[in-house]
């Protein structure tokens, strides 16, 4: 396996990020939204790169100056289960802390056992249920982590 690293998103990565998004979610974000995220919070949009191939991303924002929101994460199917999801979130947390934010929240489908397991392993805990949060009316867990 080629060596992988986590780095800042660049606009040239957009096509790969959108491919990963489309193949990972039944209700994907519109591709152009990623450019808006990059424009607003460039340090909070990271990609995982293996060799010269972008194989995953994490993206988030800061809300009200003090609340981190991890808005999306996905890893290319072929590269899952190798620790890239964890590495992306760990680096995301380093970045958000350095901007003075010490709380991160996210939403996850109550049926997404893999992602829930990943978040719990990294110290996120369920703090609420958002009824019919997704377009298909699936419920979501609201999860929160206080960063040390
Ligand atoms: C969720 C996702 C990003 C995880 O990425 P990944 O690179 O495979 O994750 P990692 O290899 O870092 O695994 C981290 C943890 O996730 C969980 N996990 C990963 N693959 C799993 C599997 N097949 N079954 C159960 N748990 C699994 C485990 O807790 C794992 O920890 P461990 O390695 O100590 O057992 C990836 O599965 C994905 O892109 N899914 C589709 C998009 C999605 O659902 N995103 C989350 C939206 S809220």
Question: Characteristics of this structure?
Answer:
alpha+beta, single chain, Aminopeptidase, 148 residues, binds coenzyme A, seven-stranded mixed sheet, 4 helices
Structure, explained:
The chain has 148 residues and is of the alpha+beta class. It has a single domain, classed as Aminopeptidase (3-Layer(aba) Sandwich), CATH 3.40.630. It has helices at residues 14-24, 31-40, 84-98, 113-121; strands at residues 4-8, 45-50, 53-63, 67-75, 103-109, 125-130, 140-146. It has a seven-stranded mixed β-sheet with strand order 1-2-3-4-5-7-6. The relative contact order is 0.15. The mean pLDDT is 96. Bound molecules: coenzyme A (COA). The site of coenzyme A has 18 residues, from β4, α3 and α4.
Reconstruct the topology from this structure.
Layout: E1 4-8, H1 14-24, H2 31-40, E2 45-50, E3 53-63, E4 67-75, H3 84-98, E5 103-109, H4 113-121, E6 125-130, E7 140-146
Parallel strand pairs: 4-5
Antiparallel strand pairs: 1-2, 2-3, 3-4, 5-7, 6-7
Bound molecules: coenzyme A.
């Amino acid at each position: 396996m080629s060596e992988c690293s986590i780095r800042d998103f660049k606009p040239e990565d957009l096509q790969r990020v959108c491919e990963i998004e489309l193949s990972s979610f039944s209700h994907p974000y519109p591709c152009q939204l990623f450019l808006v995220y990059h424009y607003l919070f460039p340090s909070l949009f990271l990609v995982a790169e293996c060799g010269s191939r972008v194989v995953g991303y994490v993206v988030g924002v800061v809300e009200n100056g003090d609340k981190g929101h991890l808005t999306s994460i996905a890893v290319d199917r072929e590269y899952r289960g190798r620790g890239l999801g964890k590495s992306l979130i760990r680096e995301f947390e380093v970045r958000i802390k350095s901007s003075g934010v010490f709380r991160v929240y996210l939403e996850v489908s109550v049926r997404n056992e893999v992602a829930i397991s990943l978040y719990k392993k990294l110290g996120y805990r369920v703090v609420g249920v958002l009824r019919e949060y997704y377009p298909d009316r699936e419920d979501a867990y609201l999860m929160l982590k206080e960063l040390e």
